[in-house]
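JOB MANIFEST
job_type = single_chain_structure
chain_count = 1
residues = 113
[input]
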Amino acid sequence: MTYLPSIRSKPITRQEAAPVDNPRYRAWIRTFPCVVCGSARRIEAAHTGAHGLGQKSDSMKCLPLCERCHRTGPQAYHRSAATFAEVHKLDIPNLIEQFNTLWDEKQRRRRAA
């Protein structure tokens, strides 16, 4: 008789912070041109972070992409998310950091006024 160890699920010990949903930030992101093609038409706030089924990633990880570069084009983010940054030669973490810095500066100026 072969002994099979019992299989137990490990307890989840790491809790992830809930994604930040910031509609004002997403609206502000949509005021910029597409970071891929430069178009200023039909800009969408593209969520770039990790996300699950039915759950968007953090709003603070959005980038401005036109509809074509985000969803409908042949090399759109949603068609080839795994290779999107490489194909378009984007440093997504750096771009997100730059937009977050601009947003923080905007919020500081707004509070100071």
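[summary]
The chain has a mean pLDDT of 85.
Residues 92-112 form the longest helix (21 residues).
exit_status = 0
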